[in-house]
Write a sequence for this structure.
């Protein structure tokens, strides 16, 4: 079972930036689809962005133009660069890969104040 750890969250003011990283033990992101999800105060788990094995990317409409997903081959991480953060981006962020999806495992909290 793939063990993924999301890190890099924090508290920033609106307009600020954060870079999240997804790391994995004994697992390579190459050849796998990897996605970032977030869960706000409610129960919904929302797909934020995905990096597909063929290199294609997906972004939910609310983050297009502000977030960028990428794979760092040297570090074996999948990163989510988040710019122009808004209070509505406040959530626990999770990464998923290796055939799994959703908000599970060790997430990282992002809090954006107005």
């Amino acid at each position: 079972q793939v063990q993924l750890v999301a890190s890099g969250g924090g508290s920033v003011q609106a307009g600020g930036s954060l870079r999240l990283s997804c790391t994995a033990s004994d697992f390579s992101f190459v050849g796998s689809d990897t996605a970032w999800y977030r869960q706000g105060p409610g129960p919904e788990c929302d797909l934020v962005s995905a990096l597909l094995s063929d290199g294609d990317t997906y972004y939910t409409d609310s983050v297009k133009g502000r977030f960028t997903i990428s794979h760092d081959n040297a570090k074996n991480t999948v990163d989510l660069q988040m710019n122009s953060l808004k209070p509505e981006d406040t959530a626990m962020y999770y990464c998923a890969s290796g055939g799994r999806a959703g908000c599970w495992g060790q997430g990282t909290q992002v809090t954006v104040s107005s």
